[in-house]
Amino acid sequence: MTGASRGIGLAITKHMSARGWHVYATARSAADLHVLDELPNVYSIQLDITDRAAVADLYLHLPPRLDAVVNNAGIIVQGPVESVALDDLSRLLEVNVTAQIAVVQAVLPQLRAARGRVVFMSSVSGLITMPSTGAYSASKYALESLADALRMELRPWGIPVSLIEPGPTRTDMWGDALDDYDRMTSGLSPAHRELYASHLVGTRKLLGRMQKLAGDPAKVVSAVDRALTSRRPKRRYRCDNVSRAQLAFLAVTPTSVSDAVFAAATTSK
Ligand code: NDP
């Protein structure tokens, strides 16, 4: 279980350990590792998933047979594509894509030994792209594609691969969304701030409204539980009605119309 220090990852860790699973939970800070060690059936592992050497050694901290890996750790980078700092984009893709695969590669021998499962924390943003979250969406779309390939490739060993696709969920990621957005805005060049002025205001308003809609992490935990325990785990788990409605709308709407709707929703009049 990666990214177990807080948010969805901590909620999954608490839930699965309370169900009697032995959870090998990764976190980065000593304080978070200490909190995890206090939980019953939880064994903390210090891991930054972008640290290649540490990921390669992950197997040393795990049992020889592993029932599942839950790739949950993730970050978000916001802002218009024209202005996104390229180092931030690279870091986002490193954390949300490359490091996820690094973890899976590292633990596959132990998963194979147990006919275990792979679970990826994607997002509804892996299926829908909105203005100002293009970078984050790109990372989740990439994860969706890699998970699809992996699922077909791992069939010979009977290792299921599931994607969890939550919509906005009440965690630090959403709690900090407006502060992050303001930090991003103040980091823009004056030219970009002027060019995107109405978009920046409109998107901030939308973020504020979406923040209020953010759902309970328990829905995501329940989807992960099903991915881990169902006899036939699904390929994809949607977690909330807001996302289902958005996807249903997109399924019957020409791109020209949905582009106009999303652009209007993120522009200040
Ligand atoms: P939080 O910001 O609350 O938690 C993020 C977690 O990822 C933390 O445990 C953090 O560790 C960890 N993490 C970040 N970078 C690294 C890294 N380099 N190495 C190891 N761990 C790292 O986010 P959420 O709980 O909301 O998000 C969890 C997952 O769910 C993410 O993949 C996110 O994209 C996805 N998701 C979230 C949604 C939401 O609305 N909240 C909606 C859809 C998907 P640390 O505490 O050390 O920073």
Produce the secondary structure layout:
Layout: H1 7-18, E1 23-27, H2 30-37, E2 42-46, H3 52-56, E3 68-71, H4 86-114, E4 117-121, H5 134-153, E5 161-165, H6 172-175, H7 177-187, H8 190-195, H9 197-213, H10 217-229, E6 236-238, H11 241-251, H12 255-265
Parallel strand pairs: 1-2, 3-4, 4-5, 5-6
The structure holds NADPH dihydro-nicotinamide-adenine-dinucleotide phosphate (NDP).
How would you sum up this structure in a few lines?
The chain has 269 residues and is of the alpha/beta class. Helix content is 55%, strand content 10%.
Describe this structure in words.
By secondary structure, this protein is an alpha/beta fold. It has a single domain (7-169, 216-243), classed as Rossmann fold (3-Layer(aba) Sandwich). It is built from twelve helices and six strands. The chain has helices at residues 7-18, 30-37, 52-56, 86-114, 134-153, 172-175, 177-187, 190-195, 197-213, 217-229, 241-251, 255-265, and strands spanning 23-27, 42-46, 68-71, 117-121, 161-165, 236-238. Strands 3-4-5-6 form a four-stranded parallel beta sheet, sandwiched between helices. Strand 4, helix 5 and strand 5 form a beta-alpha-beta unit. Helix 7 packs antiparallel against helix 9 (197-213). The longest helix has 29 residues, at 86-114. It is globular and about 60 Å long. The model has no long low-confidence stretch (mean pLDDT 97). The chain binds NADPH dihydro-nicotinamide-adenine-dinucleotide phosphate. NADPH dihydro-nicotinamide-adenine-dinucleotide phosphate is lined by residues 2-3, 5-9, 27-29, 47-50, 72-75, 95, 121, 123, 166, 168-169, 171-174, 214.
